[in-house]
């Protein structure tokens, strides 16, 4: 009985230990400047015609790719939709998933916006700075 419990516990620890996080180290902050790229999400369905503006900046930090970003806050249910979608979306460069968008901060306006920055697990390469950056995510449904 002890052996079965021990093997079960080892299996659980192995599974739990294999989960990875999207970032290395703490989240830092950076003020918005002209080096940020704008990405616009155009919503469909019930929220058709609505949009969310997201700003991303990429740089090198300690040999790894660092991503900074934020989004311009919407009102009401549109804000709920954006926040829910960003929980599961990913930032991609040339189609390769780089990091989750969970760290992005909502900001009221562009002027003096504060972005959150994460050092990713991706080694920095010059091609990452020039690649096409985009967001990918799944459909979300809001329930109230």
The H-and-E topology, N to C, reads as HEEEEHEEEEHE
Q: In angstroms, what separates the terminal alpha carbons?
A: 47 Å
| Strand elements, count | 9
Q: Count up the domains.
A: 1
Protein name: Lipoprotein
Organism: Sneathiella chungangensis
Signal peptide: 1-21
Keywords: Signal
Secondary-structure topology with pairs:
Layout: H1 2-17, E1 23-31, E2 37-42, E3 51-61, E4 64-72, H2 76-88, E5 90-93, E6 96-100, E7 105-107, E8 114-123, H3 126-130, E9 133-136
Parallel strand pairs: 4-7
Antiparallel strand pairs: 1-8, 2-3, 3-4, 4-8, 5-6, 5-9
Signal peptide: 1-21
Organism: Sneathiella chungangensis
Protein name: Lipoprotein
In short:
The chain is of the alpha+beta class and 144 residues long. Helices cover 24% and strands 42% of the residues.
What does this molecule look like?
- It comes from Sneathiella chungangensis.
- Keywords: Signal.
- This is Lipoprotein.
- This protein is of the alpha+beta class.
- It has one domain.
- It is built from three helices and nine strands.
- The protein has helices at 2-17, 76-88, 126-130; strands spanning 23-31, 37-42, 51-61, 64-72, 90-93, 96-100, 105-107, 114-123, 133-136.
- The longest helix has 16 residues, at 2-17.
- It is globular, with a radius of gyration of 18 Å.
């Amino acid at each position: 009985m002890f052996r079965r419990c021990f093997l079960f516990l080892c299996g659980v620890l192995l599974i739990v230990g294999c989960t990875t996080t999207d970032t290395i180290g703490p989240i830092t902050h950076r003020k918005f400047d002209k080096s940020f790229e704008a990405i616009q999400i155009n919503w469909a369905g019930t929220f058709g015609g609505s949009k969310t503006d997201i700003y991303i900046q990429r740089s090198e930090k300690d040999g790894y790719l660092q991503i900074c970003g934020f989004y311009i806050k919407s009102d009401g249910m549109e804000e709920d939709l954006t926040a829910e979608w960003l929980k599961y979306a990913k930032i991609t460069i040339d189609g390769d998933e780089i990091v989750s968008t969970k760290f992005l901060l909502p900001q009221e306006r562009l002027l003096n916006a504060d972005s959150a920055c994460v050092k990713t697990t991706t080694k920095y390469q010059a091609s990452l700075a020039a690649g096409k950056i985009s967001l990918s995510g799944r459909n979300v449904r809001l329930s109230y």
